[in-house]
Amino acid sequence: MIQKQCVTVLLLLSIVLTVTAQTFALPWGVALTSKRLQETNFTTALSTYRVRSLTPENEMKMGVLQPQKGTFDFSGADAIIEYAKAHDMGVRGHTLVWHKNIPSWVTDETWTKAQLTDILDNHIETVVGHMGNDVYAWDVVNEALDDTTAHARRPSIWQETIGDEYIVHAFTKAHQVNPTIPLYYNDYGIIGKNGKSDAVYTMVKSLLNQGVPITGIGFQSHLSLNSHPTAESMQQNMQRFVDLGLEVSVTELDVAIGTSPATAEQLAQQEQIYRDVISACMSTGACAGITTWGLTDKYTWLTDYLGHTEAPLPLTTTYEPKPAYQAIKDMLLVTYPADTPASHPTTDPRPHSRVCTY
Ligand code: G3I
């Protein structure tokens, strides 16, 4: 209720105040690697299309950050943070604990539970401590459930060596290091109501009942024209997490077309799916942002993964806006006055969370 009132206040403010500047009411974020920041076409598009949040696609993962035991390389992550600071953007932290991108010095050895817990603690302490409030949220645990019908815990090194409690441990440690930062559980295949999102719901509800400091759910949303939940399913599903007192974010949105080149009809279908996803998140009143897993069809993990273009993103390979961008623009762009104070959404990557009390 409080969240919905806050959204209403924000919307009224945007209507009443003088019209002199435009920005997004909720941040549109994109995933990227730091080397893109050397490309003028890319950075011009970030500015032209008013991207307000950046997620390091790989450079905050353990394998990149701690390639050798106790030796940290923050160069890529720091470059993204510095760029964001200089351009009035926020940065989402992705990700502290995952079954992929673990450095070989971890996977090549056999550890006791106590030893691996120490490794996890040290990694979280060092990384969360280094980033401080330069990131506005952390994906603490990523993809902990598997894709069997039971959606049991995925058999990662963390799960097999530390056991179920590794998730509690990771959130608790991150909270100890930075008690103010929102901490997320992030996963794919959970934006609609289905067996996997039911399993995440049950797990997170149990974590909350144990007092685990989890504040948000990241719905990755790697969708395709042939595989996407209905608008109603997405809305109802996100709402039930908000009803637990959590905030929600769309963290890795892309919508694969399936064939190349895309037809106008396919691009229109893609736009509609973007609209449905954004609408589902916003309708909860506790949506902290919409991040797409890339900016331009020129650079998408799907091309590397599938070997052909899927045109899943809001801009074409030549940085032209697609119908999917129109969905982002129509739904997120609002107008604020140029002399807006610093606490206003123009400089705040997470307006709802900062303006409203959860
Ligand atoms: O940078 C090295 C390069 O030096 C080397 O020559 C090359 C050879 O394989 O690998 C390069 O690293 C690759 C990296 O992407 C950068 O391109 C890794 O092999 C490759 O595994 C890595 O893939 C990333 C994947 O996560 C695994 O970390 C994708 O870019 C990234 O888009 C993807 O992102 C994930 C999210 O984190 C979680 N949700 C799903 C999403 C898509 O899979």
In DSSP terms, counting alpha (H) and pi (I) runs of 4 or more, how many helices?
Answer: 14
Series of secondary-structure elements, N-terminal to C-terminal? HEEHEHHEHHEHHEHEEHEHEHHEH
Give a quick account of the main beta sheet: strands, pairing sense, barrel closure: 8 strands, parallel, barrel
Identify every distinct bound molecule in the structure, by name, code or SMILES.
ligand G3I
Strand order in space, largest sheet: 2-3-4-5-6-7-9-10
**How many beta-strand runs?**
11
The first-to-last residue Cα distance is 10 Å
What is the approximate shape? Answer: globular
* Structural class estimated from helices and strands: alpha/beta
Average pLDDT score: 88
| Helical percentage | 40-55%
Binned strand content: 15-25%
Q: Low-confidence spans: pLDDT under 50, at least 5 residues? A: 1-20, 336-358
Q: Rg, please?
A: 20 Å
Give your account of this protein's structure.
The protein is globular. The termini are close together. It has helices spanning 2-16, 40-48, 62-65, 75-86, 104-107, 113-131, 157-162, 166-177, 195-209, 231-242, 264-283, 301-306, 323-332, 351-355; strands at 21-24, 28-32, 53-56, 90-97, 137-142, 183-187, 216-219, 222-224, 247-256, 287-292, 333-336. Helix content is 42%, strand content 16%. Mean pLDDT is 88; it is low at 1-20 and 336-358. The protein is of the alpha/beta class. The chain contains 14 helices and eleven strands. The strands form two sheets. Strands 2-3-4-5-6-7-9-10 form an eight-stranded parallel barrel, surrounded by five helices. It has a two-stranded antiparallel ribbon with strand order 1-11. Ligand G3I is lined by residues 57-58, 61, 100-101, 142, 188, 220, 252, 301.
